[in-house]
Each structure stands twice: as C-alpha cells, then as structure tokens.
Amino acid sequence: MNTSDIWKDFHEALLTFIKKRVNNKYDAEDILQEVFRKIHSSVHLLTDEKKLRSWIYHIARNSITDHYRAAAKRKEAETSFDAGLDFPEPSDENSNFNQVVSSWLKCFIQGLEEKYREAIMLTEFENLTQRELADRLGISVSGAKSRVQRGREKVKELLLECCRIERDRLGNVIDAQPKTNDCSCTSCENSFFGNLRPF
C-alpha cells in the first residue's frame, strides 16, 4: 500500500467530496494536496487495509475543518489589520503624520522575507487582486491570500513594536512617534523623522 496507488484509487472521489463542502475550487485542490500529504506521512501506521477508505475520509473531513478554522482566523486578523493599519492618505494638517507612517510601512515592507514583500508590493502598490497575484506567482489563490495576510501581519507587528500611533475617528494619523532612539522606523529615510522625538 503506497501513496501513489491511493492517489490513483481515491483522488478524484476525494476531490468531489471536498468540493461539495468547500466553495472555492482552488481551496478544494489545496485541501486535497494537504490530505495526501497527511496520508503519505502516516500511511505506514495503518495496519488494516480494510479501514483504508474510512481512514482517508476521516483525514479529509479533518482537513476541511482545519481549512475553515484557518480561514476564520485569517479573516479575523485581516479585519483587525484593515481596521487599524493601512496606508493613510494626506489630509490637511495631518498630512505630515500620514506621510510619515506611510513611509514607515513601506520601509518595513522592504525588510520582509521576499515572498511576503513581493505579495504586499504587488497588491498594495501595483493594485493586483489576490487572484491576479496567484496567477503572476504561479500559486493557488488561497496561497496568495495567505502570503498577503502574513505579510500584513508582519508589517503591523513591526510597526506597533517600535512606534506609537494615534489616529482620529476618520483614520488620519494625528500623532506618530518612535518609541526609542534605535527604533527601526528611524532608520527609514524620510525628511519628517528629524521632527519626531521618542517618547
């Protein structure tokens, strides 16, 4: 009993099974790959071949559950990110702070691991949709979404780790201060930084 034989016998039926429970065909294909990754790593532990079918479908059901749990967590994190951190547009007297924070974000993005940096740059600055990003990079849509989300999380972590940001009810930055003299944001080249003092 090996993974190749199991793939031949079950992959089409499994994909149909998954597609009935997951709306996005790309997500279904990703889940199928995850199911077979788990099968490959554990098939040697299955001693009774009569239980193979039920074992495989048990893995598939668990993988679908894991998919929805992960999607819910990503959505929650994305909502949190979008609500509290974006690229602010200049607005009247707040324009300097908005531009400062935007520059910090861009600087932090440059320091990301390449796959996350590329995903953020293409979606935030070249306005690619996540589906277009997936096509450009040759990855699944869920993989593209994951890269963008993880990249955003990393940028947010870096910013909030070293900077204190205050916003008004419209989202304009009304105060932006590095927390220490050696804060990462102070290494970003921006003419506004000279006017900012750590608190």
Automatic annotation (TrEMBL):
Residues 9-73 form the RNA polymerase sigma-70 region domain. InterPro entries: RNA_pol_sigma-70-like, RNA_pol_sigma-70_dom, RNA_pol_sigma-Z, RNA_pol_sigma70_r2, RNA_pol_sigma70_r4_t2, RNA_pol_sigma_r2, RNA_pol_sigma_r3/r4-like, WH-like_DNA-bd_sf. CDD domains: Sigma70_r4 (cd06171). The keyword Transcription regulation applies. It comes from the Bacteria. Keywords: Sigma factor, Transcription, Transcription regulation. Pfam families: Sigma70_r2 (PF04542), Sigma70_r4_2 (PF08281). The keyword Transcription applies. Residues 105-154 form the RNA polymerase sigma factor 70 region 4 type domain. SUPFAM superfamilies: Sigma2 domain of RNA polymerase sigma factors (SSF88946), Sigma3 and sigma4 domains of RNA polymerase sigma factors (SSF88659). Belongs to the sigma-70 factor family. ECF subfamily. NCBIfam families: PRK09637.1, sigma70-ECF, SigZ. This is RNA polymerase sigma factor SigZ.
